[in-house]
Amino acid sequence: MSASRAYADWIAVDWGTTHLRAWAMAEDGTHKAEARSDDGMGVLTRAEFEPALLRLVEPWLGSRTVPVLVCGMAGSRQGWTEAPYVSVPAKPGELAPVPVETRDTRIRVSILPGLSQSSPSDVMRGEETQIAGFLAQSPGFDGILCLPGTHTKWVHLSAEEVVSFQSFMTGELFELLSERSVLRHSVRAVETDPEAFAEAVADTLSRPERLAQRLFSIRAETVLTGLGPEAARARLSGLLIGAELAGARAYWLGQEVVVAGAPALSALYAAALSAQGVAVRTLDADPLTRLGLAKTWEIQRETTS
Predict the structure, then answer these.
(1) Burial class of 23 by CB neighbour count within 10 A (0 to 12, 13 to 18, 19+)
(2) Count of CB atoms within 10 A of residue 94's CB?
(3) Which of 126, 142, 189, 238 is packed most tightly, with the most Cβ within 10 A?
(4) First CA to last CA across the chain, in angstroms?
(5) Helices and strands: H and E segment counts in the chain
(6) CB within 8 A of 153, min separation 6: which ones?
(7) Is-contact 279 257, C-beta < 8 A?
(8) CB-hemisphere CA count at 13 Å for 234?
(9) Per-position DSSP letters for 231-270, written without gaps between them
(10) DSSP readout, 12-81?
(11) Total-model pTM
């Protein structure tokens, strides 16, 4: 009896710290199905990676071997198999994946490396695949790509290469301050106040050295003047993003900037940059990782055929 054909021609995987997402891919780079789980790198031992992947993608497998291309934290030192960083300048779609030994012969897994920068020291893992997806959409782009998130990346792109990049812990700081600091009592709101956000951005852009003091003023004004939770949350976000823009000024000043992230967060960055006279284009980052994996898969096939 001949080996049964798999539903997926190959499988694309984005393996983050807190999530695992996979796509059943066709040879032409389109996807047939998507699946996700909470089996992120942060909750797995090295021996648990293969079973976690199989739980998610087994319905797409036959008896033949299916290639699996992985990006993200599965390639970190604490992940499945370390895929060492590649120094910039580098073309993100041309990074060579690192093979992984598996027990199950129905899958052949390889993991993409991240990017590193020596001066100033910086690293990214997973975002390089988003960048490859962006370049697949916007070939020839020469300018700045901002990827807002837990650790926001500002990336200088030229000639299809990542020339340099800079990371900011803005998203993580917002989470810590809004959920674990004294400010958590002040920012219990879902909506934000656009005017308060704009004022806070301008505040830290002009005086970033006052950030710590201005953060505590949110608490003080809540107690003394009844500052509302929408305005307080907006001010916290604006102060942190304003401080980030002050630090990243060399990346956005006089540059073409594209912001690719979750729509609501991208809108905040676009508003902050637009107030500084920067022409900004926004993109939903959700499809970029899959597009980047597909682009990398295509390039790898061309180079090995």
Answers:
(1) buried
(2) 15
(3) 238
(4) 29
(5) 9, 14
(6) 124, 127, 145, 146, 147, 165, 166, 167
(7) yes
(8) 20
(9) HHHHHHHHHHHHHHHHHTHHHHTTS-EEEEE-HHHHHHHH
(10) EEEE-SS-EEEEEE-TTS-EEEEEEES--GGG--GGGHHHHHHHHHGGG--SS-EEEEEEEGGGSTTSSS
(11) 0.94
Report CA-CA distances (Å) from 76 to 98, 167, 243.
Answer: 12, 17, 29
The DSSP call for residue 90 is B
Query: Which of 30, 26, 32, 33 has the alpha carbon at shortest distance from 10?
Result: 26
**pLDDT above 70: residue 108:** yes
Query: Scanning the structure block, which residue is given the tokens 């797409």?
Result: 60
Q: What angle do CA 288, 260, 37 make, to 5 degrees?
A: 50
Question: What contacts 195, CB < 8 A, 6 or more positions away?
Answer: 234
pLDDT in tens, 120-168: 999 999 999 999 999 999 999 999 999 999 999 999 999 999 999 999 9
Question: Which of 173, 179, 253, 239 is CA-nearest to residue 209?
Answer: 239
